[in-house]
Amino acid sequence: MRVVRFISIFAAALFASCAPASGNTMADVLAASKASDWRPLDPANTLYMELDSGRVVMELAPQFAPQLMANLKTLIREKYFDGLAIMRAQDNFVVQWGDANEEHPRPLGKAQAKVPAEFERAAQGLAFTALADTDTYAPQTGFAGGFPAARDLKADRAWLTHCYGTVGAGRDNDSDSGNGSELYAVIGHAPRHLDRNITVIGRVVQGMELLSVLPRGKGDLGFYQKPGERTPIRSVRLAADVPQAERSHIEIIRTDTQTFTDLIEARRNRKDDWYKAPAGRIEVCNIPIPVRQSSK
Fold first, then answer.
1. What is the pLDDT of residue 270?
2. Which tops the pLDDT comparison, 102 or 198?
3. What does the chain look like in DSSP terms, one character per residue?
4. 41, 244 in Cβ contact below 8 A?
5. Cα dist. 198→77, 171, 253 in Å?
6. Class of the domain covering 26-293
7. Domain ranges for the chain
8. Burial of 55 (C-beta count, 10 Å sphere; 0-12/13-18/19+)
């Protein structure tokens, strides 16, 4: 019997017309942005997953899961994921990839089989752009290091939230069983109930459309029942190990800028001709983090 392994953002900007009280739309805010409002991806913390359909780019968050990150990088540099597959696609939830052969699993090499759970970290010392809006799952939400996050200042805890595109490390029932050999990405409505129950490693910043359209698995929890239904993985590499000419040159909006604050307001108070009743509030997973192509 398979042991259930839970696995778990916005990668592309939603440039829909979304206006704050000032009348500026989200597109207006981005058009007025400065070069300093954007940041490049760190090649040492960027993953490329190559599929037959294209490249999925993931940004890692080592400030939240340093031990898992080190283990994952060991797996990647030993080419652990090459030739494995996306083996699960559960509707309105996640896609999951790793080794589907449970009888003769692929050796982990120098990577550790168990890694201490890193479901949350200390809030103290963590730069945090807080939202004013209340949240159902946390005392406060916002952004940390460019990632959707939450925190509890009284308990001195902070964690990454499960939004669309969030990537996490699948595990069994034991908290230390998520070693990075199985990963997942959220492809449905934000499953925030997973927050602080699994180690989140980052998010997809480009290529979500390659994951979200995969055929849904017909087995339990969306697992594919036949090997031929799985999506093969050509390779997974750190961008730092890929030649410069073969890297994806993209920039991401910084979440600690006035421009991003204005973008949040554009999403919170939509007053273009289509919206008749602006919500006047926002949820952390409903704030896109825009991405654009870079010439560098």
1. 83
2. 198
3. -PPP-B----SS--------TT---HHHHHHT--GGGEEE--GGGEEEEEETTEEEEEEE-TTT-HHHHHHHHHHHHTTTTTT-EEEEE-TTSEEEEE---SSSPPP-TTS-S-----S-B-STT---EE-SS--SSSSEEEEETTEEEEEETTTTEEEE---TTEEEE-B-SSGGG--SSSEEEE-SS--GGGTTSS-EEEEEEE-HHHHHTSPPP-SGGGB-SSGGGSEEEEEEEEGGGS-GGGS--EEEE-TTSHHHHHHHHHHHS--SSS-SS--S---GGGS---EEE---
4. no
5. 23, 7, 27
6. mainly beta
7. 26-293
8. middle
Tokens for 16, please give them: 């829909």
Q: How confident is the model at residue 23 (pLDDT cuts 50, 70, 90)?
A: low
Specify the pTM. 0.91
CA distances from 278 to 21, 75, 200 (A): 10, 47, 32
Q: Give the CA distances from residue 26 to residues 17, 33, 91, in Å, rounded to whole numbers and listed in that order.
A: 6, 11, 30
**CA 45 to the chain's CA centroid:** 13
- CA gap 8, 94 in Å, rounded: 6
Q: Return all residues near 167 (Cβ < 8 A) that are at least 6 apart.
A: 8, 58, 183, 184, 185, 186, 200, 201, 202, 203, 204
Neighbouring C-beta atoms of residue 175, cutoff 10 Å: 16
Find, among 174, 177, 147, 175, the residue nearest to 159 by Cα: 147
CA distance 233 to 187: 18
Q: Which residue has the higher pLDDT, 195 or 19?
A: 195
Distance CA 234, CA 217 (A): 20
Give the mean model confidence (pLDDT) for residues 63-71.
97
Residue for token digits 């340093």?
Answer: 66
